Request: fold
Amino acid sequence: MSNRLKLQDGKTLTLASLGGALEFYDFIVFLTFAPFLQTLFFPSDSPLLSSIMTYLTYAVAYFVRPLSGVIMAHFGDLIGRKKMFMLSLFLMAIPTLLIGLLPTYEQIGYAAPVLLLIMRLLQGIALGGEVPSAHVFVTEHVPQNRIGLANSMIASGLTFGVVIGHFAAYLIYTNFSNDQILSFAWRYPFICGGVLGLIAVYLRRYLRETPVFLEMKKRKELIDMPIKEVLKSYKPATMISILATWLLTTGVVLVVLAPNLMKSDIFKIDPEFVSKIAILATVMNMVGSIIAGIVSDKLGIRKTVVIYSILLADTSYAFFNSLGSGDHTTIGFLYSLAALFLGLVACVPIIIIKLFPANIRLSGIGFSYNIGNALFAGLTTFTVPVIAEHVNPMFIADYILFLCAVYQLLPRQKIHEVLCLITISDNKAQ
Reply:
């Protein structure tokens, strides 16, 4: 196999990134318009209670992901990566479209928040299989010495969803008044996201099944109950993967929750300015993710994690400290710099993908990735913004510092030895 990426590899990476982009697009759109959704679906005399119910509705999607991830990964290991890859995106696009068409509390009462909750649950079911499938799909298509670059491009594709999400928010905020957004304009981003998702499903028809899966199927190496094998024989790999997935929440709190904090009553930074620098920051994160993937292929994952986590800790803390100054230039510069080093999150799938052999790879990643998201990402999106807005505005900065410290543990020798042992087993399986 050639050590260079071919044109077909580029097409595969592009189409594989579309689903993750839609996931993060919806992520941004929901949280950006959370104040409007709060008013429309959760009216209450208590702003705190309304805020909690809104963020809890969003976070609930993470709690159904482990079950859906296991089920979809199971069939992905048995009948093929491509089929599950298309199904997950289809199941994600439809609820996104329907959220944009939902009646509000004023129109149908308590049925409105219930329907919104159901849509979020359906999105969670779909997302359980989307991102793990994307990383497995590209890993099994590209040369082994380009795994870092391939997976970082998937990570940058996720961030691209953030870019278009912020861009959609910017267009809404600049072209409509608050009353117009509250009345009808909040629906447009969700409807557009659903339509884009359906287009992406159609385009994925042109993807090819991975050579690794086809070879396993030919040799009859497929396992009837891959999740059983994961839980029985790969406990250390599963625990490392869950821990690594927790660290992905640094991206959530910095790229997604920080703009909301800037626009809050604490700092009162102009929403239009926040939307502009958020777009710039997410573009920088895309660049940083790709650079991290290239560096990991050259220097190894251990050195990459150490360097990036130190730089992220320094720049993110400086950024949050700058918010009180009100200096737009300083805030924009530090936010962009922190987002560049947030490319660190691209290292997480590079670590996880090597921990499981090919015949149980999707089940192993699907289970651990979604358990990690349910335990940590869901709780993060629910608790961190509430604490930051109502208790301590520097809480997000402290949270990122803590996670950067945890990052330092991942490349330590003991974990590295486990990684190497399982990578050897992986190579034998293939």
Q: What stands out?
A: The radius of gyration is 21 Å.
